[in-house]
């Protein structure tokens, strides 16, 4: 590449960096995400590392929702198993499940194309959940 080509690239770059874009502020990502994350008294988002790490300690106490209808181990590996649970129509009355599922729906919208939220007060829904269960030194 010769000096003339480099000069043309710099000029092209400068033309793109227009003054009207220089003073723009970045979007508030946390505010944008909080529009999708349900706000409850027991569930919050945080930017505090200590609070986040304290919430991770509760992960070992998690119990899957619904009735287990299938369990299997991958190629005989006892450290990893998969569970399929069914949550029947009466989930509308389970406030703890509704709160948990509302948080799960956030991931559906971001990772599944054309995903939409369900009407949680509609008793006709039957929800199937696939869990991957890990066993480690602490259980």
TrEMBL record:
Domain Histone acetyl transferase HAT1 N-terminal span(s) in chain numbering: 23-113
GO terms for MF: histone acetyltransferase activity
Record GO cellular component, one term: nucleus
One Pfam family recorded for the sequence: Hat1_N
Family annotation (InterPro entries): Acyl_CoA_acyltransferase, Hat1_N, Hist_AcTrfase_B-typ_cat-su
Protein name, per record: Histone acetyl transferase HAT1 N-terminal domain-containing protein
PANTHER family documented for this protein: HISTONE ACETYLTRANSFERASE TYPE B CATALYTIC SUBUNIT
Protein family per UniProt: Belongs to the HAT1 family.
GO biological process: subtelomeric heterochromatin formation
Recorded catalytic activity of this chain's protein: L-lysyl-[protein] + acetyl-CoA = N(6)-acetyl-L-lysyl-[protein] + CoA + H(+)
Alphabetical list of SUPFAM superfamilies matching this protein: Acyl-CoA N-acyltransferases (Nat)
